[in-house]
Specification:
Blueprint (H helix, E strand, L loop, with lengths): L29 E10 L7 E7 L5 E5 L11 E5 L4 E4 L1 E6 L1 H9 L1 E2 L6 H12 L8 E6 L12 H4 L8 E5 L4 E4 L1 H6 L12 E5 L6 E7 L3 H4 L7 H17 L2 E9 L4 H9 L6 E6 L4 H6 L7 E9 L29 H14 L2 E6 L2 H13 L9 E4 L5 H10 L2 E4 L1 H7 L3 H5 L10 H6 L4 E3 L10 H10 L19 H8 L1 H6 L17 E4 L16 E6 L2 E5 L6
Parallel strand pairs: 1-4, 1-5, 6-13, 7-8, 8-9, 13-14, 14-15, 15-16, 16-17, 17-18, 18-19
Antiparallel strand pairs: 1-2, 2-3, 5-20, 9-10, 10-12, 11-12, 20-21, 21-22
Helix pairs in contact: 1-6, 9-10, 10-11, 12-15, 15-16
C-alpha cells in the first residue's frame, strides 16, 4: 500500500547511522523508494518498507527503524509498484568492451550446430567483397549434434576466398578457414608459441583451423584494430545493455591502459551509467598503482594476469592429463617464476591482482606461491574463475584469504563437457561454490560476459539451481554445491563489494551506503527456481539516480 506521511526532522535520522560511515547532510529534498518488497542483504533486518536517499546519493535511513512519516511535498517518491528491490547487483567479472563489440559484430551466440555456423558464414559471404575478412564471436560447441568443434574444412567450401575468423565464446580459441590460416602464415608446419597451440592434422601437419590462446595472435592481427570511436561506441552500448539487465556495476576485466582516459571522459560526459571497477592488462600496472583516471563511479586499482587457458579448448592447466586427450595437460601461460615476481611487484605497489586460473595445477601454483611469500587476506587478491581445484586445495584458498571470483553460468555450461575433459574423479573440486564458502573463502559472483550472456538472472539461477537453463542435469554435476538464495544474493552484492574494497559503500542497503539498487518484477528469494529465468529487471539505480527503468506500454 502506498503511504504519504511527513518527515518531522531529517536530523533525527542520524541516530540510525553507523558512526563509522559518513552521514548524509540533513537538508535538501530526499528520495524515498517504497511500495514493494525491499531486501537489504542484512541478516538482522532482511527486509524494510522504504529506503530514504539524500541528494548526495547515499542512504540516509530505512523504514523501519526510522519513522514512515513523510509528505509528498518534502520528498521525491519512487513507487516500486509491487516490484522487488535488492542491493545493486554487481557483475564481479565481465569484459565490458567485448559485451559492446558482441552487439556490433557478427554475433554467433546461440548457434546450435556446425551446420548452422556454416550457414551463417555462407550468408555473410554474399555481402562481402573478395578477400574481405569475416570476423565473428560467440560460438560454443557444447551440445552441438556433431559433437565436435568446427574446422577449416567446414568453412572452406562456403568461403574459399574470404578469410574467416570466428572466436569461441570463451575468447581462448578460434576457428579460422584456410584463407585466414595462410594469411596469418600458420597453415604450414610452424612451432607453437609459448602458452598457445595450433591444432594440426597428424599426417600432413597442416593446421586444421582450431587455434588456441597465445597462438591466436597472428590470426587476430588480420582483423583491423577498432578506432577510438569504435571503442567508445562499444563501451556505451555495453553499459546501456548492462544497466537494462539490472546490473548497477561491474568489475571490468582485461582493460587496455589506453582506455583509461576514454572511460573517464565518457563518465564525465554522462555516458557511463554503470559503476566500473577496472582490472587492467599488465600494461596498465602504473595506472592501477597510482589510481589514475578515477571518478566517483570508476576505480582503477587492479591488474589482470593469466595463468592458463580455458577448459573447453583444453587450455586449462591440469595436474594430470586430460581424460579425452592424454597427450596434453593444457597450456602454461605464466610460469611460476614470473608469477612470483609479479606478486612481489604488486604487493610492493599495493596493486590488487586478479589472476585467471581454471585448471587445478594453475590454481595450485597460485596458492603455493602466495603461501611461500607469506601473504594474507589483507591484500584481497583474487583468483578469477577458480573452476577446477584439487579437493585438498579447496580449504587452502579460504585459509590464505584469496578471493574466489567465480561465474555460476560457467558450471551449467561446462558441466556438459567437463566429464569428458576431466573424468568423474576430478569433478568433486569443480565449480565448488559451497565447499569454498564452507572453507571460509569469499566467493564473488560474475558472468564473464561476453563469454556468457551477462544476465544477473541467469547467474543467480545457476548458483541456486546448478542445472541447465532447461532444467537438465547429469552425472557429475554435484548438486550439493548449489547455494541458498541468501548465499547467491551475497555473491553479486556484499561479496562483490568486498572483492573491490567497496564494502563500506556498497553491497547492502543500510544508512551511509551508496544508493545502488536493482529492482526485479518478482521475488528471487521465494519464487520457484524455474521461474527465476522468467523475471525481468524493471529499474536500475546508481547513487540514487534511476539510470534505467522498463519502458511503459505507452512508450
Amino acid at each position: 500500500m502506498r503511504t504519504f506521511l511527513t518527515i518531522a526532522a531529517l536530523g533525527l535520522l542520524a541516530a540510525c547511522h553507523d558512526p563509522a560511515r559518513p552521514e548524509a547532510p540533513a537538508q535538501g529534498k530526499v528520495t524515498v523508494f517504497t511500495g514493494g518488497t525491499i531486501y537489504t542483504g542484512l541478516a538482522d533486518q532482511p527486509t524494510v518498507n522504504a529506503v530514504i536517499v539524500g541528494e548526495d546519493g547515499r542512504i540516509i535511513a530505512t523504514a523501519p527503524p526510522s519513522s514512515e512519516d513523510w509528505s509528498e511535498d518534502e520528498v521525491t517518491l519512487v513507487d516500486l509498484g509491487g516490484a522487488v528491490m535488492f542491493p545493486g547487483f554487481t557483475d564481479a567479472h565481465s569484459h565490458l568492451l567485448g559485451i559492446g563489440q558482441r552487439e556490433l559484430t557478427l554475433n554467433l551466440e546461440g548457434t546450435a550446430s556446425v551446420a548452422e555456423l556454416v550457414d551463417r558464414i555462407d550468408a555473410e559471404v554474399a555481402d562481402k567483397a573478395p578477400g574481405e575478412i569475416i570476423f565473428g564471436r560467440g560460438w560454443i560447441e557444447t551440445g552441438w549434434p556433431e559433437g565436435r568443434m568446427p574446422l577449416a574444412d567446414d568453412l572452406d567450401p562456403v568461403s574459399p576466398d574470404n578469410p574467416v575468423i570466428l572466436m569461441r565464446a570463451d575468447g581462448h580459441a578460434l576457428v579460422a578457414n584456410t584463407a585466414a590460416l595462410k594469411a596469418a602464415d600458420i597453415y604450414d608446419i610452424t612451432g607453437d608459441s609459448d602458452g598457445g597451440r595450433v591444432e594440426r592434422d597428424e599426417e600432413t601437419g597442416k593446421a586444421t583451423g582450431m587455434v588456441i590462446d597465445e597462438a591466436m595472435y597472428p590470426v587476430m592481427q588480420l582483423v583491423a584494430e577498432p578506432s577510438d570511436s569504435d571503442i567508445r561506441e562499444a563501451y556505451e552500448i555495453g553499459a546501456k545493455l548492462y544497466v537494462s539487465r539490472g546490473w548497477t556495476g561491474t568489475h571490468n576485466m582485461s582493460v587496455d591502459r589506453n582506455h583509461a582516459v576514454l572511460l573517464k571522459s565518457m563518465d564525465d560526459e554522462g555516458l557511463m551509467p554503470l559503476r566500473l571497477y577496472n582490472a587492467y592488462n599488465e600494461n596498465g600496472f602504473d595506472i592501477a598503482k597510482a589510481h589514475e583516471y578515477e571518478t566517483d563511479t570508476i576505480q582503477n586499482r587492479a591488474v589482470k594476469i593469466y595463468m592458463d587457458g580455458a577448459l573447453g579448448s583444453r587450455g586449462a592447466l591440469l595436474i594430470q592429463p586430460y581424460s579425452d586427450r592424454p597427450d596434453t595437460r593444457g597450456l602454461e601461460i605464466l610460469d611460476e617464476n614470473a608469477l612470483h615476481n609479479l606478486m612481489m611487484d604488486a604487493e610492493e605497489d599495493e596493486v590488487q591482482l586478479a589472476i585467471h586460473a581454471i585448471g587445478d595445477l594453475a590454481n595450485r601454483r597460485i596458492l603455493d606461491t602466495y603461501e611461500d611469500l607469506g601473504y594474507g587476506p589483507d591484500l584481497r587478491w583474487r583468483i578469477e574463475h577458480a573452476q577446477i581445484l584439487a579437493p585438498e586445495d579447496i580449504a587452502r584458498l579460504g585459509q590464505l584469504g584469496l578471493i574466489a571470483s567465480m561465474q555460476p553460468s560457467h558450471a551449467i555450461g561446462d558441466l556438459k563437457f567437463a566429464p569428458d575433459r576431466l573424468g568423474m574423479d576430478r569433478l568433486g573440486g569443480a565449480y565448488a561454490w559451497e565447499s569454498l564458502l564452507e572453507s571460509g573463502a569469499v566467493v564473488a559472483g560474475g558472468s564473464d560476459a561476453p563469454v556468457e550472456v551477462g544476465s544477473p538472472l541467469i547467474e543467480f539461477y545457476a548458483a541456486v539451481a546448478r542445472k541447465g537453463l532447461n532444467g537438465e542435469t547429469g552425472e557429475g554435476w554435484h548438486p550439493e554445491q548449489a547455494l541458498t538464495r541468501e548465499q547467491a544474493l551475497a555473491l553479486f552484492t556484499s561479496s562483490a563489494a568486498y572483492a573491490a574494497f567497496q564494502e563500506d559503500d556498497l553491497g547492502t542497503i543500510e544508512p551511509g551506503k551508496l544508493a545502488d539498487f536493482t529492482v526485479f518484477d518478482r521475488d528471487l528469494m521465494t519464487i520457484p527456481e524455474d521461474e527465476i529465468l522468467e523475471a525481468q529487471a524493471v529499474m536500475t539505480v546508481v547513487a540514487g539516480d534511476i539510470v534505467w527503468r522498463v519502458p511503459s506500454s505507452s512508450e
